[in-house]
Specification:
Elements: E1 10-13, H1 19-27, E2 35-39, H2 40-46, H3 48-56, E3 60-67, H4 71-84, E4 88-92, H5 97-109, E5 119-123, H6 131-138, H7 144-157, E6 162-164, H8 170-177, E7 182-185, H9 204-210, E8 214-217, H10 219-222, H11 227-243
Parallel strand pairs: 1-2, 1-8, 2-3, 3-4, 4-5, 5-6, 6-7, 7-8
Helix pairs in contact: 4-5, 7-8, 9-11
Length: 244
């Protein structure tokens, strides 16, 4: 990750329902946007054309669909996502090693000549999940730290490039899986901002200090009066605290 700038490691979430809203939002960044997350809402609303249009603008895409099904189905889906040429997509680690391996195998089989292989990232636990939910609703009796670390180890064993996790989990994940195992971390908020539906959160500066390779930032940038300036301020603050 040392060869990437802080700006290249900030993924802006395009959490809007239509192609027009997404492209209008991108335009407000005045050409400074390098990496975006396209999640379920936008992809299901706008389909593949939004991927093509963002790519034509030179923007890298994290396609956040969290695949989770039987291995054959996930493998076939991974083949299609690979053909789209996105930078990164994800699967749920809870689907098991065979499912993750099938996704990885189908990526390799469906690369076009000269195509860069998309990063395959595993979802450990959602940042909206806390230990109360983990124990009482999901039925997992272990601590959040223990289960996230266990899932990260499974993802590495299956050959994935990294995991999605809370920034708070990154030190343990890096300790268990190595510093080169990627961590993509949502749950980013201002210290005194609205947490919305997130439970386990940090500021951008804290996330990078914990060792996050990429951070996913949504409303704190996209709902700002001037998103481009907000993004620039975050980059500047992180560089000041982390790089100096």
């Amino acid at each position: 990750m040392n060869n990437l700038s802080i700006r290249d490691r900030i993924i802006v979430a395009l959490d809007v329902p239509t192609e027009k809203e997404a492209l209008d939002l991108v335009a407000r960044f005045e050409g400074e946007l390098r990496f975006v997350k396209v999640g379920m809402e936008l992809f299901y609303g706008a389909g593949y054309p939004i991927i093509e249009k963002l790519q034509k603008l030179g923007i890298k895409i994290f396609l956040d669909l969290k695949l989770h099904d039987i291995p054959n189905t996930v493998g076939r889906a991974a083949a299609q996502l690979t053909k789209m040429g996105v930078e990164m997509f994800n699967v749920h680690v809870a689907g098991g090693i065979q499912m993750m391996e099938e996704a990885r195998n189908q990526i390799e089989k469906n690369l076009a000549v000269g195509q860069k292989r998309p990063l395959l990232i595993g979802v450990t636990q959602l940042t909206s999940t806390d230990e109360k939910i983990l124990h009482e609703q999901i039925g997992i009796p272990y601590s959040m730290e223990a289960i996230v670390t266990h899932y990260a180890k499974l993802a590495k064993k299956a050959g994935l490039d990294g995991v999605v996790s809370s920034p708070l989990d990154v030190p343990k994940i890096k300790g268990a899986c190595g510093i080169d195992f990627l961590t993509v971390t949502p749950g980013i908020r201002f210290l005194n901002g609205d947490h919305h539906d997130q439970k386990r959160i940090t500021t951008p500066e804290q996330a990078f200090q914990f060792g996050s390779d990429y951070i996913v930032v949504g409303r704190m940038i996209t709902e700002a009066k001037e998103p481009a300036k907000q993004l620039e301020e975050i980059v500047r603050n992180v560089e000041k605290q982390i790089l100096n």
